[in-house]
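#help-structures
NK: newbie question, is this the right format to request a structure? protein is GTP cyclohydrolase 1 type 2 homolog
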Amino acid sequence: MTVRLSDVVAVLEELYPPSWAQSWDAVGLVCGDPDAPVRRVLLAVDPVAPVVRDAVDGGFDLLLTHHPLYLRGTTSVAATSPKGKVVHALVRGGCALHVAHTNADVADPGVSDALADRFGLRDLRPLQASAGEALDKLVVFVPVEDAERVLDAVTAAGAGSIGDYERCAWSTTGTGTFRPRAGATPSRGAVGQVERVAEARLEVVLPRDRRAEVVRAMRAAHPYEEPAHDVLELAAPASPRGLGRVGELPHPTTLGELTERAAEVLPPTAWGVRCAGDLDRVVRTLAVCGGSGDSLLREAGRAADAYLTADLRHHPASEAPDGLGLIDAAHWATEHPWLADAARRLSAATTVETVVSDRVTDPWTHAVRSPRWARSSSP
């Protein structure tokens, strides 16, 4: 069976829905024919020229990258700029490009889960949880004999799903009472007379974005001219998705030993790994964030003994929470572990061959320590 690009994109968008991406991000299919067959997929962090050459020369049909090509948009793909040349090379080589960026950052599992796995972290939870799905609860009062029909109708409209269960509802019975006024056409009782009906109180949850459809379906199935009902907005549930991860190390270690461990388990770069804090400080709980993570310093300080991320800037690092050990690695190195996990998941859902690029695309290629530097000179 031929796997087409549209099939692969559908799988990727199920694993990493574009709706999870930040509003400023640029994710999804950048170039490629949805009807084109896909046999081989190359995964890489950056859609830069050397990676594109590897994809085209290696006969890959799709390049899946973490970083976007056009993050800030463009009005031209002419081959007069590095990004334009990338697009032309991909199109000439018959290779599509798809991006999973911040939607992969917050996925469960996502970029930071793969990073956490390098350290054997247990009991993982998001460092900054994403908002859970916005939910409503519909409460409707319906004659007992009509309750099942109304429940079937709202279920078909999208209500009553909880996890892997559907048609979930709660009901109890009681007596409803009303008196139709002039102009009413009641299905029960008569104008001007008090009517009492054995009714069920039916409760179901529903996605907030399905509210209009569910209420419409309820009204259509309900025997009353004016169904009595409430729509309640529920507090957002806790989400397993979000930025960063925090968990327990397999055994306590020191900040110095943990930094050495990071240098061992992360892909090597000229940047290496650096740390800030008391090297003898005991670390039991570690927070991690693949890519730039200094915006989560406060959350890390509340949740962990140490925080490993990339691109820690001078001032945020200088003002980090007291007692929080900092470990700063190369941006590319903290995101590269996710590629293998994404490749496994894509291969499990399709018949395509997946290959993780081993090309180092961290922009820094050499580092020299000042000969005058000494640890004793640090504060």
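mod (FA): yep, format's fine, and the tokens are attached above. The radius of gyration is 28 Å.
NK: thank you!
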